[in-house]
């Protein structure tokens, strides 16, 4: 059965999602919301850089999107808007999104989902996959688990989302601004949900979650997606969210986001392992997993099409058939069957 999908916003995630929807045998693109008025009226295929138009005209009219007959909205704007998501749910469309709601069940949105007879699923790679689903998955091959970890090491020069990088992630301003920015709570909240999902999934007892945030500043000009970072401005950040049972650290979720690994003070580097994602489980037996392929080989190719962003979009798209089939309400990773990709159109049924 084919699910009809609307793409909401055509940034890096949205553009990759359009490509993935078109290739997915069980999905059909039927609508596209854009924020930029200059994009309204353009074909979704053109916006996604595809070779041919898709016959789906983008609009910046929310009412038009809410009135469109569809099964699911892939919601990927700059920042989450709970009222907007509630309206989509009440209009009878499932929502899959990388911008939040990974584990925390907002009662107003739960009610909107029930009213619309649909579901809301938050997913991605980080927060999402590598910070919750993957540690939990690998812990499934251990017993007596004492610790899990999901950690990202990425060169943010390859993430071509200037507003996300500058305002959401806090690069390019002063260290004081990065430590107290209005969006820090939102950013932190997503990762804390991943920690909580690990704690609840594994059954750890009462815990305390502690956040640490270290900053390195530029020692010379660094070209980033949001412009030049000048000496003294934020050029690298290490965030960690760690949960403790008593004095035992039981979960660590962390990101190491650097604008390259030159001209930094302190002089942090990715080390010989380079950019990567890591998952670790202590248990019987334990395991250590390094994921490559979700980071770019060079800055230019990353800015064109960042593999981490493409993977985020793929997981959102691949979740859609499962979310559409789920019972109404909040749907987390732990409520879904294994979400798989689909065969290349050339090789599939
Ligand atoms: N969980 C994860 O693993 C994960 C991974 C990557 C990204 N994300 C999140 O996913 C979201 C999209 O990321 P992205 O990489 O696609 O970012 P992006 O390339 O900057 O795209 C964001 C899009 O949001 C729209 N937009 C801009 N200003 C807006 C506003 N004021 N109100 C509403 N929409 C606005 C624009 O859409 P149009 O171009 O259509 O006008 C823009 O292209 C971000 O919130 C990001 O943090 C999550």
Describe the protein.
The protein is of the alpha/beta class and 349 residues long. The chain folds into 2 domains: 3-124 and 310-335, Rossmann fold (3-Layer(aba) Sandwich), CATH 3.40.50; 129-293, Dihydrodipicolinate Reductase, domain 2, CATH 3.30.360. Helix content is 30%, strand content 28%. The protein has helices at 12-23, 44-47, 62-67, 82-90, 107-116, 133-139, 162-168, 175-180, 184-202, 299-304, 307-325, and strands at 3-8, 27-33, 72-75, 94-97, 119-122, 143-155, 208-218, 222-224, 227-229, 234-245, 248-258, 264-265, 276-284, 287-291, 329-330. It has a 7-stranded mixed sheet. A 6-stranded parallel sheet has the order 2-1-3-4-5-15, sandwiched between helices. It is globular and about 50 Å long. The relative contact order is 0.17. The protein binds NADP nicotinamide-adenine-dinucleotide phosphate.
Largest sheet: 7 strands, mixed
Name the shape in a single word. globular
Helix/strand/pairing class, anyone? alpha/beta
The helical percent reads: 25-40%
List the bound ligands. Answer: NADP nicotinamide-adenine-dinucleotide phosphate
Q: Strand-residue fraction?
A: 25-35%
Q: What is the overall pLDDT average?
A: 96
Q: What is the level-2 CATH architecture name of the largest domain?
A: 2-Layer Sandwich
> What is the distance, rounded to the nearest whole angstrom, between the alpha carbons of the first and last residues?
14 Å
Quantity of strands, as a count:
15
Parts with pLDDT < 50 across at least 5 consecutive residues = none
Total discrete domains: 2
Radius of gyration: 20 Å
Number of helices: 11
The spatial strand order of the largest sheet comes to 12-7-10-11-6-13-14
Annotated CATH topology of the largest domain: Dihydrodipicolinate Reductase, domain 2
**H and E order:** EHEHHEHEHEHEHHHEEEEEEEEHHE
Oligomer: single chain
Specify the CATH class of the largest domain.
Alpha Beta
